[in-house]
Amino acid sequence: MATLSTGSRNDARKHALLRDYQLKTAQHTRLLDGRKYPCCGCNRSVGKDFYMFEATSRATKAHSFMYAGEDCAQTIIQFSASTSTPLVDLPYFDPLTGASRTSRGSGTRPGGSVAKWAPLNRELFYAINLTFLAMKLKPGSTLSKVLETITTNPSQVRPTTAPALNTIIERNLDSTHGSLTDYVNDLRVRNPTMKQYPFTLIRGALKNLSTPPIDYL
Ligand SMILES: [Zn+2]
Hints:
- By secondary structure, the chain is of the alpha+beta class.
- It folds into 2 domains: 1-112, no CATH class; 114-217, no CATH class.
- Helix content is 38%, strand content 17%.
- The protein contains 7 helices and 7 strands; from the N terminus they run H-E-E-E-E-E-H-E-E-H-H-H-H-H.
- It has helices at 6-20, 70-80, 119-134, 143-152, 161-172, 180-190, 200-207, and strands at residues 21-30, 38-39, 44-45, 49-57, 63-69, 92-94, 99-101.
- The strands form 3 sheets. It has a 3-stranded antiparallel β-sheet. The protein has a two-stranded antiparallel sheet with strand order 2-3.
- The longest helix is centred in the middle third of the chain and has 16 residues, at 119-134.
- The chain binds zinc ion.
- Zinc ion binds at residues 39-40, 42, 44, 68-69, 72.
- Zinc ion is lined by residues 39-40, 42, 44, 68-69, 72.
């Protein structure tokens, strides 16, 4: 048998990932100072920009998070197009500046910009990204389902989305943090230029509910 080149060996690993795991795109973002993640099984670490996937083992049904740098992730998304469960690309979110941009990727929709999204959905998208970045969520939470709801219909505001995020944050708080903002402030220790996130629209949406919950943003 011919020896595989590094490139095709890495491609084979990515095909194997898609065969062994049900993947779901959870975020496309920047690597913060103080963090390091292994990339997709290619023996590298992710670079400045990376994707996080929620992975469910097809054999054991166990949940985990998986990381891939920009290039590897684009390849995985591209390879997934020929499977029965193509991966959805996501807009890129920069937690330091709060900017988002269209994914350069080849992936399936909706990798586009969040510029034209309903303003509440745009804020929810940022808050979900920050929740994934700042809190130690267990894989398999319903947060990626909330994200999916927003990204598939970005112009449609659903009254259930803000309270769903609020509840996920509440359930994942530990004894030293009372809100998502507390966790985001922890990230500021190593990333002092990070933008402030007031979450004005989400807080407003929670207040407007018939039974307003305690706000954990
Ligand atoms: Zn990789």
